Amino acid sequence: MLFRIHSDSGVPIYLQLVRQVMHAIETGALRPGDQLPAIRSLAEEAVTNPNTVAKAYRELEYEGIIELRQGLGAFVRANLPSAEQGQAMKQAHRAVGAAVTAMRKLGLSEASMRRVFEAELMKEEEASAPAFTRR
Fold first, then answer.
1. Angle in degrees, CA 102, 108, 114, rounded to 5
2. Which one of 30, 35, 95, 117 is most buried, by most CB atoms within 10 A?
3. pLDDT, tens digit only, all 135 positions of the chain
């Protein structure tokens, strides 16, 4: 598999790799179960640091696109997230980004933002719990 890195594009290299893997999956060049190149070989092919490739793979794993198998490598997941899930994740990222921007304007620290976010998650979790488990 050939990846093309454009160092003058202004887009971080790891993000270029993420986008190219996702594009390869969308176009059918990569199918569920296919193995991605090893981190070192892809780093050599892309003429980049292996940590950059590892970061791209971690991002793809976080997004549910690939799975990393210890000692075996990276594989395209068999049960990829649906297009609707992907769209929902994009909307969620935008919403959280807007909330972070608003909290920064209020002068909140990163630690305070985390506490606010965690408190809201806990409040939502308690509200959706069955009545007999609520306090």
1. 90
2. 30
3. 678 888 888 889 999 999 999 888 888 888 889 999 999 999 998 889 999 999 999 999 988 899 999 889 999 998 766 556 667 777 888 898 899 999 999 999 988 998 998 888 888 877 776 665 555
Contacts of 65 (CB under 8 A, 6+ apart): 21, 22, 25, 76, 77, 80, 81
Is there a single domain that holds both residue 67 and residue 20?
A: yes
Owning domain of residue 45: 13-76
Same domain, 40 and 87: no
Domain match, 44 and 95 both: no
Q: Which residue has the tokens 């569920």?
A: 32
Q: Is residue 18 part of a domain?
A: yes
